[in-house]
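I am still getting used to C-alpha cells and would like to learn alongside you. Please make up or recall a protein chain and show it to me in full. Would you write everything just below, so we can both look at the same thing?
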Amino acid sequence: QSVCLPAPRLLTTLPMGGQAGTSVEVTITGQNFEDADELSFSHRGLTATPLVDDNGQPVPNKYVVTIADDCPPGVHEARVMTRLGVSSSRVFNVSELPETLQVKPNTSVETAMSVAVNSVCNAVMTKQAVDHYVFEAQAGQRVVVDCAAKRIDSKLNPVLIVADAKGNDLLV
C-alpha cells in the first residue's frame, strides 16, 4: 500500500522579480506549505532570508530576497522547501532596470500610477479589470511598452492601450 503526501505548490511570488544589486521583500502564496522554511533559487546570485517582525519572529510567507550585482538578467526559478519536500517552481525575473510595485487604486485616468520610462512595474491584475498607468514622453520619442506576462509564466492575456494625455487612444 502506498501513501501519497500532498505535493507543495508555489503559486505566486510578489513581486515576480527585482533589479540586480538590490533587495526586495517578496510575498509567496501556494498550497501545502504551511511550514515553509526556505525560499531558494536556481542561481546562487539570488538569496532569501525570512522577513522578521518587530519581535524577531519570522513573518509567514514573506522573505527578503537579495539580488547580487553580478546576478545575470533573465528568468530564474524559485522554489520553497517544506516539511513535505520541495515545491513546484515559479519564475523570478532579474532585470537591470529600476523596478516598482503597483500601487492601487489605479483604476481610472485620474488615479493612474506614475511609471518611469526605462523601468519595470510589477503588478497583480484583477480579472477583467482595467489598470491605468501614466508616463512622461516627448513628441517623436520612441517608447516600448512590454507586458511580459507569457514570458514569466502568467496566464494573463493582456490588452495594452496607449493613450494621450487627454485619454484618446493612440494605439491598441
Notes: Residues 113 and 133 are 5 Å apart (CA to CA). The first strand starts at residue 9 and ends at 14. The chain has a mean pLDDT of 90. The radius of gyration is 19 Å.
